[in-house]
Design goal:
Elements lengths: L3 H15 L6 H20 L5 H18 L4 H14 L1 E5 L2 E6 L1
Antiparallel strand pairs: 1-2
Helix pairs in contact: 1-3, 2-3
Length: about 100
């Protein structure tokens, strides 16, 4: 089992140790977007490194969460509870949220 909060700190410590950005939040969002694009491309081209690309996406997201002081594990659990309570119906062929 992964302790996501502990992993956030580990990702941050690695960024510091390697001299990576830990101050420019917009740059981190751009890097995250770039990694997601690489993962999409790996999927589209059926490349063998799709798993590694998805790991890069996760690591950038986890690192960004630490930079912003957000407990990602807590936020994910809260969002899952919220999503599980939502009700959806197919209306005119489109899955539509009908109850929050």
């Amino acid at each position: 089992m992964i302790d996501l909060l502990q992993l956030q700190k580990r990702v941050y410590e690695n960024k510091i140790a390697k001299g990576f950005n830990v101050t420019d939040i917009y740059q981190e969002f751009c890097f995250l977007y770039g990694e997601l694009s690489e993962a999409c491309e790996a999927y589209r081209k059926k490349k063998d490194d799709l798993g590694e690309e998805l790991a890069d996406v996760a690591l950038y997201l986890i690192g960004l969460s630490e930079l912003l002081g957000i407990n990602l594990e807590e936020e994910i659990m809260n969002k899952m509870e919220k999503n599980e309570k939502r009700k959806y119906e197919t209306i005119n062929g489109v899955l539509t949220k009908v109850k929050e």
